[in-house]
């Protein structure tokens, strides 16, 4: 079983995340894509993050009708901040028959040499990269790397930051969020 792992804060999960995850599941050699809800990204401040269980619940709501997508809270039980190599190692031990593939944006690929044990990630795991307009140049050492494949996935220039701003200002986020996620946010008055 080839499992794509799409890491993120999903604060909140939006239609751009869903389109990307579904595209990777349906148009690559992956059997499924798991969205890995990260409690804390080591490169981002955690002060603006909604509680991890709310974010996990919203991901579950968003993908409930898609059998090709899954969600994991594996990092909730790991030391914070979460490091990708530690999560990959844990998943590999827990599911020894699965082949895990890392999914990341071009912007993350540009910063990959700053990640903990990034060489080990590239030794042990395939990486599928989706384009991110305006992202930094990919380091020369990673260009043409045998484990890195660029996938021309469709992208929407939508950010969770923009959505949170709209919600705080009382503006519409219709079509930016999946309907059940929108209803959950409104019912709990999140980000407002």
Keywords:
192 residues; alpha/beta; Rossmann fold; 6-stranded parallel β-sheet; 7 helices; 6 strands; globular
Structure description:
The protein has a single domain (2-156), classed as 3-Layer(aba) Sandwich (Rossmann fold). Helices cover 35% and strands 17% of the residues. It has seven helices and six strands, in the order βαβαβαβααββαα. A six-stranded parallel beta sheet has the order 3-2-1-4-5-6, sandwiched between helices. α2 runs antiparallel to α7. The termini are far apart. This is Probable nicotinate-nucleotide adenylyltransferase. Its EC number is 2.7.7.18. InterPro entries: Cyt_trans-like (IPR004821), NadD/NMNAT (IPR005248), Rossmann-like_a/b/a_fold (IPR014729).
Instruction: Give the CA-based shape.
Output: globular
The total strand number stands at: 6
Q: How would you characterize the largest beta sheet?
A: 6 strands, parallel
Give the terminus-to-terminus CA distance.
41 Å
Counting DSSP H or I runs of 4 or more residues, the number of helices is 7
- Assign the CATH topology: Rossmann fold
Keywords: ATP-binding, NAD, Nucleotide-binding, Nucleotidyltransferase, Pyridine nucleotide biosynthesis, Transferase
Pathway: Cofactor biosynthesis; NAD(+) biosynthesis; deamido-NAD(+) from nicotinate D-ribonucleotide: step 1/1
Domain Cytidyltransferase-like: 6-165
GO molecular function, one term: nicotinate-nucleotide adenylyltransferase activity
């Amino acid at each position: 079983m080839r499992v794509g792992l799409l890491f993120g804060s999903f604060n909140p999960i939006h239609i751009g995340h869903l389109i990307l995850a579904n595209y990777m599941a349906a148009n690559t050699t992956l059997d499924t894509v798991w969205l890995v809800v990260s409690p804390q990204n080591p490169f981002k401040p955690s002060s603006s993050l909604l509680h991890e269980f709310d974010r996990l619940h919203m991901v579950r709501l968003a993908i409930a009708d898609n059998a090709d997508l899954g969600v994991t809270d594996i990092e909730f039980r790991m030391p914070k901040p979460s490091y990708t190599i530690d999560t990959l190692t844990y998943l590999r031990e827990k599911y020894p028959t699965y082949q895990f593939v890392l999914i990341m944006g071009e912007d993350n690929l540009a910063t990959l040499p700053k990640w903990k044990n990034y060489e080990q990630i590239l030794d042990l795991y395939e990486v599928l990269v989706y384009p991110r307009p305006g992202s930094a140049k990919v380091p020369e050492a990673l260009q043409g790397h045998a484990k890195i494949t660029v996938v021309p996935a469709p992208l929407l220039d939508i950010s969770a930051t923009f959505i949170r701003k709209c919600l705080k200002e009382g503006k519409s986020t219709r079509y930016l969020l999946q309907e059940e996620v929108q209803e959950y946010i409104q019912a709990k008055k999140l980000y407002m």
